[in-house]
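Internal tracking record. Fields below are filled automatically when a chain is submitted to the structure queue. Please do not edit lines marked as system-generated. If the sequence contains nonstandard residues, flag them in the REMARKS field before resubmitting.
Queue: standard
Priority: normal
Entity type: single polypeptide chain
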Amino acid sequence: LRPPALDELGLVPALESHVRALSESVGVPIRIEAEPLEVALSRQAELALYRIAQEATSNAVRHAEPSRVTIRLRGAGHGVELEVEDDGRGFHVDQVISTDDGGLGLFGMQERAAYVGGSVDITSRREGGSRGTARIPTDGGGIG
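SYSTEM-GENERATED OUTPUT FOLLOWS
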């Protein structure tokens, strides 16, 4: 399902609305740093980026006990890069992905990106927070 805010407001305002509500409900500051995008995103790419950001921020506030979360959105070559970073307690990415249910959110983010020709990389350090980076191409030519 597509959130109405994406069509009514656009990607960045829809993300801002979502993180404002999430931040208020959990008490963790979530900041968005968005550069003006010089590329047009398909409806599918917008939805993938929105859902990836939604899952990554939700995972951070539920599991990492962060004092802050930052979302960065910027143009990157022939596409868009979305980064979600927290300063909470990290985790072992391979270990979480290999569990029966622990990696469903991470797997879902990777599947959403792959559906629109992109990818998601996740890095984490046990006491240094986590970073998820989604790269979504806009012209089918990949991210440069």
